[in-house]
Amino acid sequence: MRIRRLKLAGFKSFVDPAELVIEPGLTGIVGPNGCGKSNLLEAIRWVMGEASPKSLRGGGMDDVIFAGTAQRPARAFAEVALALERTHGDGATTEAEVVRRIERGAGSAYRLDGRDVRQKDVALLFADAATGAHSPALVSQGRIGAIIAARPAERRAMLEEAAGIAGLHVRRRDAEQKLRATEANLERLDQLLGEMD
Ligand code: ATP
Question: Both 35 and 65 in a single domain?
Answer without folding.
Answer: yes
